[in-house]
Amino acid sequence: MSATEPLLRVEDLRVEFSTEDGVVHAVDGITYEVGPGRTLGIVGESGSGKTVASLTTLGLTRTQGARVSGRILFEGRDLAALSDAELRAIRGNDIAMVFQDPLSSLHPFFKVGAQLIEALRAHREVSKQQARARAIELLGLVGIPDPQRRVDEYPHEFSGGMRQRAMIAMALANEPKLLIADEPTTALDVTVQAQILALLERLQRELGMAIVIITHDLGVVAEMADDIAVMYAGRIVETASAELIFDGPEHPYTWGLLRSIPTLDGSREADLVPIPGTPPSLIQRPSGCHFHPRCPYAQPSHARIDPQLRAVPDQPGHHVACLLEVDVRRRLWAQLHAGRMPEEAIAAVGVPEEPQ
């Protein structure tokens, strides 16, 4: 694989689950790529399909009866076409995942060191003594103090932050080329969050691996991600470099995510600005633009026309699925960025209303 080729490329991935209530369209035709040594942030509310897409990359939705289509190319090989045995050779070796809840991801009946040793010996022919020495080394690598003693402790003897570090150590056991981190800072206080993110950045530099970080919080990936994909209702609605997303977001959903983040320079009395409404059902999705029931700027035609990802003029690599005109979007964001509420932004910009 040449240095210019992506390490991972997902093409038109669709994942569906059949239930008694109907078909759940968990992932609906997403495409993205991750280059060697780069970080992609996949951002969106709970239920937007972020985790399902990554679990499918590792083949972990097969046992749940998922219908999968599209291609998942890793170093040129289509993971979706591999057998379970072939996937097991890659999972935990070339591609590793840090799951969302470290307490439930670590087995409570086994010592942390024993679980690390198992992860090592599943892919490498090493003795128990060699694997134990590597487990101690890994715990030290992720910043757990006194790893010689901690290796023989149970998960309940670790704090939340230490359990997350232990999960990262397990994921790094075989020095993967790609690390998928699913909400790696959930349920951690802000100080520990910063430590975990700094740890991932340091390990990425040292090991040269690519990272996909899944989160609902754009603030988490503000400094870490090279590229960002914003997901809503199983689709990617905006994708660009992190710089473009933060400097000039183009989708109203992305605006909502950014405006819901507290700022240091804002008034302490100022209320956070939530996105109105709730995420849609993935069984009975809204017609047209899936975001239109929650979008303050939606027009009648937006309930009929389904927008596709299109390149943003004069911004290479920036794609958005929005039916608003480019100049209208940019004038609206300028008003919102200045602190206006949506109705004030609409009044200032003068968005023309379509006939019913």
Describe this protein's structure.
With 356 residues, this protein is of the alpha/beta class. Helix content is 32%, strand content 20%. It contains 13 helices and 12 strands. It has helices spanning 50-57, 84-90, 102-105, 112-121, 128-141, 147-150, 160-171, 190-207, 218-221, 242-247, 252-259, 326-337, 342-349; strands at 8-19, 22-34, 39-43, 67-74, 77-78, 95-98, 178-182, 210-215, 227-232, 235-241, 310-311, 319-320. The strands form 2 sheets. Strands 6-7-8-3-9-10-12-11 form an 8-stranded mixed β-sheet. The chain starts with 7 loop residues before the first strand and ends in a 7-residue tail after the last helix. The model has no long low-confidence stretch (mean pLDDT 89).
Describe this structure in a few short sentences.
This protein has 356 residues and is of the alpha/beta class.
The proportion of residues forming helix, as a percent range, comes to 25-40%
Question: Within the largest sheet, what's the order of strands?
Answer: 6-7-8-3-9-10-12-11
Query: How many strands in all?
Result: 12
The helix count comes to 13
CA gyration radius, whole angstroms:
22 Å
Mean pLDDT figure:
89
| Main sheet specs | 8 strands, mixed
Distance between the termini: 53 Å
Low-confidence stretches: none
Please state the overall shape, judged from the principal axes of the Cα atoms.
globular
Order of helices and strands: EEEHEEHEHHHHHEHEHEEHHEEHH
Proportion of residues in β-strands = 15-25%
- Alpha-beta content class: alpha/beta
